[in-house]
Specification:
Length: 315
């Protein structure tokens, strides 16, 4: 993950973005985080049941403008530079989309993403997003709780880990012609992490379907972990007894761990993790680095899962 700074302008999200967002999943009910984004949100979706919550939101921090979140991307299936995925990812065909379910669960098989989504309550959650390269954003995701999907799939007592795979298809993802990563991209979580209330499956952001470059049509969002855990364009979910391999750990296990919890006390060999730079918040002179929070500020939700673990060893 090479760092290339391409963001120069100062901009925060234009709240009117929310006014223009489209309804896209007709049968789903939507939960919106209306407190942070104002009254415009309440009327943004004219379908289904509208509930609001201010639980999963970020106060006093600007939401990153969509143009940055959708143009400054890590998506090696297309390119290794940050600006290229937005231009190249049009070859990905996110509809129709299927997800294969395998391993230690009752409901194995191939599911249409539409059928998965129809059974879920969609909600909007505004989460911090922190890359191990020491940049960060604040993003309004749209999706559903991973735990709700897991309950439907009925894992057995043998399921100790959940494993995800991205699509492997050189036609749709031409960057896979290069062996930058042993394709497909892989990620995993311990079962208790997957069941944590913060673990989220995103199908949208900024009130619209996920742009291809952000991992359409389905990606994982685990906000207390470094960005690379947030696997994109998922086609396979498996329940495993043993800890799975995750791509970056496979590539460089001294640099990238399995847990990848945001931790300012444990530096990456090439990037100090003590502070971070908010993308889209201006030139470095006017955009001072901010202190990185342990677990990216989500300790109240997740710290208990790691009690007694040496987080230097299990980084
Ligand atoms: N998922 C896949 N399949 N391929 C990738 O290259 N990059 C990861 C993660 N998920 C990646 C991926 C990394 S390193 C980061 S920081 C985030 O996606 C970036 O997400 P974003 O482009 O939506 O900001």
């Amino acid at each position: 993950m090479k760092f290339k700074n391409i963001i120069k302008e100062n901009e925060v999200t234009d709240q009117s973005l929310y006014k223009s967002r489209r309804n896209f999943i007709k049968s789903a009910s939507i939960l919106t985080a209306s407190t942070i984004i104002g009254s415009t949100t309440a009327n943004a979706f004219e379908i289904g049941k509208h509930e609001s919550t201010n639980k999963y939101t970020i106060k006093n921090e600007a939401i990153t403008a969509k143009k940055y979140a959708s143009s400054y991307n890590n998506f090696y299936e297309f390119a290794t530079s940050k600006d290229a995925p937005a231009e190249l990812a049009h070859t990905l065909k996110p509809e129709p989309w299927q997800v294969e379910i395998t391993g230690h669960c009752k409901n194995t098989g191939v599911l249409d993403l539409d059928d998965i989504v129809k059974k879920q309550t969609l909600e909007e959650r505004i989460y911090r997003f922190r890359c191990v390269e020491a940049w960060s954003m604040v993003i309004p995701w749209l999706g559903f709780r991973l735990s709700d999907l897991i309950k439907q799939l009925e894992p057995t007592s043998k399921a100790k880990y959940i494993y995800f795979e991205t699509l492997k298809d050189t036609e749709q993802m031409p960057g896979q012609y290069r062996r930058t990563i042993p394709w497909p991209y892989r990620e995993g979580l311990r079962m208790d992490e997957a069941m944590n209330e913060l673990s989220f499956m995103a199908v949208g952001m900024y009130g619209e379907k996920l742009p291809n470059q952000n991992g359409a049509p389905l990606r994982l969002v685990v906000p207390w972990k470094y960005g690379f855990k947030n696997i994109k364009s998922i086609v396979k979910i498996s329940f495993l007894e043993k800890q799975p391999v995750n791509s970056w750990n496979q590539i460089a296990d001294d640099e990238y761990g399995f847990y990848a919890n945001v931790n300012p006390e444990v530096d990456h060999p090439r990037w100090s993790q003590a502070s971070e730079r908010r993308i889209g918040a201006g030139f470095s002179l006017f955009n001072p680095r901010i202190d990185t929070l342990k677990f990216n500020g989500y300790g109240d939700y997740v710290a208990d899962m790691y009690k007694g673990m040496d987080l230097r060893k299990y980084f």
